[in-house]
Fold this protein.
Amino acid sequence: MKKEFSKKRSHEDARFRRVGFLVYPDCQSLDLSGPFETFHWANIMLSVLRKPPTYQSIVIAQAAGPVPTMSGLQIIASHSYGEMVEGLDTLVVIGGTGCEAVTEDSALLEWVQSIAPRTRRIVSICTGAFVLARAGLLDRRRATTHWTYADRLAKAYPSIEVDASRIFVRDGNVYTSGGITAGIDLALSLVEEDLGRETMLGVARALLVFPRRPGGQSQFKGHASVLETPLRVDVSELQTWMLAHPEADLSVPALADRMAMSERSFSRLFRNETGQTPAEFAERARADAARSKLEHTNSLIEVIAMESGFGNAERMRRTFQRLFDASPADYRARFRSTLDA
């Protein structure tokens, strides 16, 4: 009871929270506007509940004034980071193609490092995780970023435990999210943490988004392709053939025979060249063949399972649940053509 009372008081006592969004040239506008609107709607929900607003969101840049985004849309920053030495409850670093240049900006990184201990929590959206990583704020922490950049983050910063499957990750007072619209998911979680579930649900309903998005980032990952890293020509050709023939016998014995190699030598070669076992690549090839059919055809799931090499619908369902955190039926409902709506 005492714990519940303490938790309730924490929601009621925190009357004012200033959220600072750090932007820069060629940032992603939706990384800003999604969470920004989420906090704005939280204030609206509080007014409906006859409670005072709690969030004040501000936009911070190198200098106050217009900042161009990736799409050409201009954001007006109200503050320069040089004048912000304290007073932030939450710092949100947004992503975008410009983050590569930002990670080389020593003045900005020094400001992030200096302000971090003065804030209650640190947040990144999408590739904003690279800024936190370069500032040393993700060392030995779990984190995520947009799935297309996850491998790059993991390789550049080996001490970070990167989980590309998650929509967002919390580790202590540091929060990271996947790409673009995932910032809304994370902001909703922060609203629930601050103000409780009732307010968060009101915001989610107003924005027409899931309070908790079904599945993770893995369901959005692009379909498998031959790796971009240099490969032996014969291995690359084998991968291409496997992607084109998911219904074929893709067992190690069959593939080794196709390569005129022993099973042991073939397995070792394939893993060294691709970073995956033959079974892992075969499973992904079949899953992606099934994804394409679910997205573009009206074929029965049982038929798709057979055509994609799974043998039966149950085996395909288990694979989809493990790889994409969604059943084939759910995946089709989320990703089929909008023209069928």
Remarks:
- Residues 29-48 form the longest helix (20 residues).
- The CA atoms of residues 251 and 279 lie 7 Å apart.
